[in-house]
Structure formats: C-alpha cells, structure tokens
Amino acid sequence: MSPVHLAWIGLGSNLDAPHAHVERALDELDTLPLTRRRRASRRYASRPVGPADQPDFVNAVAELETRLSPLALLDQLQALEQRHGRVRARHWGPRTLDLDLLLYDDRRLSTPRLTLPHPEMVRRAFVLVPLAELAPAMRLPDGRRVEALVETLDRRDLRQVLPLP
To answer: Does the active-site annotation cover 90?
Structure first.
C-alpha cells in the first residue's frame, strides 16, 4: 500500500449559498478515495480576487491524509467541484466551489495541470490565515514559516464567519 501523505486544501465559494457549499465540501473531502480529512480551519469571508463585480467568498483550509498521488488528488478535487456545479466561465470569476491543492507534503511540482506549492498562496490572506490557524509553525518547501508570511499580508478585508450549524 502507498504511504500516507499530508495535503492542504483551500476551499472557497461565493455563489448559491456559499456557506453550505463549503460545509458540504468539507464533509465530502472525508469521502474521497484513500483520503481522510484530519481537521479544518474556521471559516472566513473575503473580498474576491480579480473582478470586483461578484459577491464575497467564504473560505477555509482543510488538512488531509491521503494515499493518492498529487494528480490523482487533484482529479478527485475537480470532480468534487463539478458535483457542486462549478462552471469555469471567467478567470477568477464567481464559483459555487473552488478547491485548491495548496501543499502536498514538502513536494515541489510544476506540471501543466498542477504547481506545488500553490503559486499564489503566499499572497492570499484568505489562504494563509486559516492555514496558520491550523499549523502556525509550518514551513513551506522554501523554508518560509506560514506564521511569518501572515504578518506580511493585509488582512483588513478578511473576517471570521460562523460555520453552519
């Protein structure tokens, strides 16, 4: 059997009851093949990256244990997005569910489909704040500490929101 890997997933939604999409997706991550959700961050609301003519996002980060390869996990995440009605109509546009594979162990990877670590994560408070909540002392593959990176970001537009009961 293949070894267990740690993967970190960024979740976001800003369409069709975004809180519900994020909560359902968190539960569904635990049902992916050869994968178990270990824990999840609190939920945060954030302004959209890109076009401003869309609603705010609900975001979270989840830690997974998985025996899937990075690309097999990406396939599962994209299938989950599709089950939530994800439509890729506009770059950085609104979406029912966005699942980003942020980190996979300490692996660095650059393929046409997947770059690890996620190339934009260090500039996004809606990713680093919930990640730091779960693993403040974590170091990225380049040695930078998550907690230190959070201190460099503007967090004024990020606010904690309650998960659904």
So the answer is: no
Q: Is 98 a catalytic residue?
A: yes
Q: Give pTM, 2 decimals.
A: 0.94
Q: Which residue in 100, 105, 145, 155 is the catalytic one? A: 100
Q: What dihedral do alpha carbons 90, 163, 145, 104 form, nearest 10°?
A: -60
The reply to whether 144 belongs to the active site is no
19 class by beta-carbon count within 10 Å (0-12 exposed, 13-18 middle, 19+ buried) = middle
Alpha helices in 12-97 (DSSP H): 18-29, 70-83
Strand duo 35-40 + 57-66: pairing: antiparallel
Tokens of 115: 């770059």
CA dist 44 to 39, 102, 107, 128, Å?
Answer: 16, 17, 27, 11
User: Is residue 164 over pLDDT 60?
Assistant: no
Please report which helix (H) or strand (E) contains residue 127, including its range. helix 125-134
- What are the φ and ψ backbone dihedral angles of 116, each rounded to 5 degrees? -125, 140
Is a pLDDT exceeding 70 seen at residue 93?
A: no
Of the residues 37, 43, 98, 124, which is catalytic? 98
